[in-house]
Amino acid sequence: MSKALLVAGTTSDAGKSVVTAGICRWLARQGVRVAPFKAQNMSLNSFVTADGAEIGRAQAMQAQAARVEPEAAMNPVLLKPGADGRSQVVLLGRPVAEVGALDYRERKPVLLERALECLADLRDRYDVVVCEGAGSPAEINLRDRDIANMGLATAAGLPVVVVGDIDRGGVFAAMYGTLALLSAEDQRLVAGWFVNKFRGDARLLAPGLEMLRELTGRPVLGTLPMLSGLWLDAEDSLDLSTVVQRGDTAAPVGADVLRVAVVRFPRLSNFTDVDALAQEPGVLVRWATRPEELADADLVVLPGTRATVADLAWLRERGMEAPLRARAAAGLPVLGVCGGYQMLGRTIVDEVESKAGAVDGLGLLPTRVVFGAEKVLARPVGEAYGERVEGYEIHHGVVSVEGGDEPFLDGCRVGAVWGTTWHGALENDGFRRALLREVAGMAGRDFTPAPDTSFAALREERLDRLGDLIEEHADTDALWKLIEGGAPGGLPILPPGAPLGVATHE
């Protein structure tokens, strides 16, 4: 069986996904056949594999970093939170249940078995598997049913490295505390630390790193500098705080900047759809939660959502329906994607997700949406503006167009209002440029998309930056020894609650 490693974190958003992707790219550059793995992911950003399975977008990104095709085994359990405190459980790419937190807890032993089967399968087929944890491994109230952190590591015998975010402060306390809260059995697998998002003078940090090593008996395997502007498949809404407003620093080709307002629904999903817009020189992308934030936008985007009916009600409560109607009447562009497209129609009939029955939509497109029990998962290919377009579909709502429309991918268009169920369409360069040219014309902006912006090349460049991060700032020899040989024996065990520096060897 092949070698493997688990990347855990002191907190959510510590940088586990980035470090995992960086290790994958570093290994792939050396000709190592490597696969990413995350036993359990909670995210509303997902992706459809070539064979029609739904997995987390972060694992699809990590597979790209590893230069392999993403597959369901790389993320066997995906949880998609809904509007009612319950989550949809996606097992091996297919939805199997809607559960609350306590119901899900009872399913975990079986899910751990499936996760271990998938991990063993990947280890049989790849040279190295780089696993990513979830949240923190020191959630002591959840440890007895953990399937993504130390529960997985102990069951599979994985060495563990822990990533801490120094930018938010308290990283040494978080690392020491994480180790001290683990059982002796779990501590034996924790072999080192990554300090992430560092900015400043490394000479000031060095004494702290040495003290951490002395206190825990574990080395810091890398101090990774803060990297801005990555925007690689953010996993959850925590990441939105870093991208509330973004735009390429390059000057626009024309005289004007094109302003895009994206409605930030409470349960928005696949918000990575707008990443490609933000990479266009001269395009400014902002999140909007108030009607006044739509006022100066040249394009308003209604993105996907896990709770179409609930988020439509939120949009109305926030007073955003009237501005959207006014925009459509004035011929100003509005684009709806998946759940956002469903909202733009006349009627939504939902006995599945919200169980609200028939609900009036915004009435800006001649469509009727009926939610079905079966989830649509597909990788469609089509054409728009004379350009080839590839995308992916993830939805329960089936949209029927009721005449008087202009086809737009699988959806429709009326005047300046477009709607489609296809995620990822804006990543197609020719299509994106053509749409932006029309948007600019409708908005009266002197804006021309840059002719040479390649979103795929930009992603590759940023994945290479992650590989550089590991290669240039991590102790790769020590990292490889862990991957190859597992956690070293004789690591100190910190008794929970012990005074600083008190460790025992067993």
TrEMBL record:
Q: Which residues form the active site?
A: C338 (nucleophile), H423
Carries keyword Acetylation?
Answer: no
In what residue span(s) does the CobQ/CobB/MinD/ParA nucleotide binding domain sit?
6-230
Instruction: Alphabetically list the UniProt keywords.
Output: Cobalamin biosynthesis, Glutamine amidotransferase
InterPro entries xrefs: Class_I_gatase-like, CobQ/CobB/MinD/ParA_Nub-bd_dom, CobQ_GATase1, CobQ_N, CobQ_synth, GATase_3, P-loop_NTPase
For the biological process aspect of GO, one term held by this record is: cobalamin biosynthetic process
In Gene Ontology terms, what is one molecular function of this protein? Answer: catalytic activity
**What PROSITE patterns would the database entry show?**
GATASE_COBBQ, GATASE_TYPE_1
Which is a Pfam family this sequence falls into?
CbiA
Pathway participation: Cofactor biosynthesis; adenosylcobalamin biosynthesis
Alphabetical list of PANTHER family matching this protein: COBYRIC ACID SYNTHASE (PTHR21343:SF1), DETHIOBIOTIN SYNTHETASE (PTHR21343)
Query: What NCBIfam families does the record point to?
Result: cobQ, PRK00784.1
Q: Function of this protein?
A: Catalyzes amidations at positions B, D, E, and G on adenosylcobyrinic A,C-diamide. NH(2) groups are provided by glutamine, and one molecule of ATP is hydrogenolyzed for each amidation.
| Entry's family note | Belongs to the CobB/CobQ family. CobQ subfamily.
Quote the protein name from its UniProt record: Cobyric acid synthase
Q: Give the species this sequence originates from.
A: Kitasatospora camelliae
